[in-house]
Specification:
alpha+beta, Arc Repressor Mutant, subunit A, seven-stranded antiparallel beta sheet, five-stranded antiparallel beta sheet, 41% helix
Length: 324
């Protein structure tokens, strides 16, 4: 039985479509709530996207190439008082609305508004992006001035945009949107981070520090830990310094999440070691080599911690894999 609140809406890709069929398939995406897409003359259009619908928020993630995306407010299903925040994770786009034009590069964002008039986004070369669509009424109480220029370039150096991009990178893997309850929490965090990106009120900034900002920083720090897991000097001080926060702040983030920093690192290292021991491609690697590879500097400690975690020794796990 499906839940009335949809979390993941759909996926679409032109990868397996013949070139002659792509224009029509891309045009039909308009019926799925995507801002209309049109192939650019002389270029082969390529699209790969996933769309999520969260409570009060739409998220679009993917890549475009050889296309222009044009939004009109002259009636039709797309005539809404919505705000759009697009972020280029890679590549470059050119955006026009009225007499204003901006170019957004890698890491930059752009804020657009329906009621300010039609807008067009040109993507002749490959662009990997994430786009957010939110009703103005949801964001207006959080932002200082939504009555100013509606086409706004948000520079990559903007701290709120950095946090937003990092947070989105973690939640759009799908696992973080496993239920409507989680989806609602993610949407609230994204509202906070969008407001910080384009100019939050003082009250909204203070509230975001205990909601969206903490969630984004924790997700970013966890991602950093996983990237450097093999480093046996992965201290909380080193991680805190990379994220320009204090070690005490990092400890508070993990404490509010229900585990300590040390517990998180230990469990992630053990889980990675477990996966490697179960991997037939690692069968010729010594267990000690695997322990050191995932960041353990003390083999005895690794063996004790592993047995507490899995109720079996590393050798037992390897032999079970070999027996299956």
């Amino acid at each position: 039985m499906s839940h009335p609140e949809i979390i993941r809406s759909f996926r679409f890709s032109t990868r397996d479509l013949p070139e002659r069929a792509r224009a029509r398939a891309i045009h039909e995406l308009r019926e799925r709530g995507i801002v209309p897409l049109e192939p650019l003359r002389g270029l082969t259009p390529r699209v790969q996207l996933t769309k999520w619908l969260l409570p009060g928020l739409g998220v679009l993630s993917g890549s475009f190439c050889g296309l222009r995306q044009a939004k009109s407010t002259r009636g039709g299903p797309e005539a809404n008082d919505d705000l759009f925040l697009g972020v280029n994770l890679a590549g470059q786009s050119h955006v026009c609305q009225g007499t204003r034009e901006v170019t957004i590069g890698e890491g930059d964002g752009v804020l657009l508004c329906d009621v300010a008039g039609p807008f067009t986004i040109f993507r002749p070369t490959p662009v990997h992006f994430i786009g957010l669509r939110v009703p103005r009424r949801a964001l207006a109480p959080l932002v200082r001035d939504l009555g100013g220029p509606q086409l706004r370039l948000v520079r990559r150096e903007t701290s709120g945009l950095k946090l937003l991009t990092s947070y989105l990178g973690g939640v759009t893997d799908g696992a973080a949107l496993a239920s409507p309850e989680v989806g609602g929490l993610v949407a609230a965090h994204l509202h906070d981070l969008m407001a910080l990106s384009v100019g939050a009120t003082r009250e909204a900034s203070e509230a975001a520090e205990t909601r969206g900002v903490r969630a984004a920083r924790l997700r970013s720090i966890k991602s950093d830990i996983l990237t450097h897991l093999e480093d046996d000097s992965l201290t909380v001080s080193a991680v805190a310094a990379r994220h320009s926060v204090t070690p005490r702040y990092v400890h508070k983030l993990f404490g509010a999440d229900g585990a300590t920093y040390t517990q998180f690192v230990l469990l992630e290292r053990l889980d990675r070691a477990y996966r490697l021991l179960r991997d037939s491609r690692m069968a010729t690697h010594r267990i000690s080599s695997i322990a050191y590879e995932v960041g353990f500097g003390d083999l005895s400690y690794f063996n004790r911690a592993f047995r507490r975690r899995y109720g079996a020794t590393p050798s037992d796990i390897r032999h079970r894999r070999a027996a299956t």
